[in-house]
Amino acid sequence: MLPRFDNNEERATAAYNEFLQGAVGKGFGDVSADAFEHGYDTFDALDSIRQTMLNLLAAGLYHALEQQLARACRLCQRRGEGPTQSALASVAVWILENEGIDPSLLPSFARVDELRLVANAVKHAEGNSAVKLRQLRPELFVEYQNAVKDAAGPLDAQWHPRLSVEEPLAGEDLHVSPGLLREYCMAATLFLGELADQLDACAQFWGRAPSPDA
Question: In angstroms, rounded to a whole number, what is the distance separating the alpha carbons of residues 52 and 173?
Fold first, then answer.
């Protein structure tokens, strides 16, 4: 669906021209200014929808990863026993306790954990995850930086205390890009592959016989 929003500027210009042509000669006052505002509103609405989709896709990707990982653990145990929760932290503890493998030591885990912060910030807006994410990915808050520059001059080393993530589910305040979303998709795939390799080498994990009552 995202490619449908790649030409937002063209669609906004078309809306501007259509408004302008329809208003010419009808005594609508400052036609040019009204047409510009109409075009801007069109672009702003389309861009917000696009950003909302990107933010939601990032959050959905993380939770899909959690759910698939928890399900895989239960299936591989062959008895339905496994993590009782799908949260990555709970699944990681279960894998460490049952298989002796620490998922947090895998090379791709850092990026997956960053994705967790993004998912939390998308769902909950301002909070601990958003604070940590600013340190890792300040470019996700670029509009905040622009707002600070406009209102208070050059950016200080610290973030402006009044700025916070308020409406990430409306495409505001948090800006996951298509490129970053692709990075997160690759990281999630790599994480599952790395973990599968570790578990595949663990004979106990794959070779455990079913219990008599399985």
Answer: 10
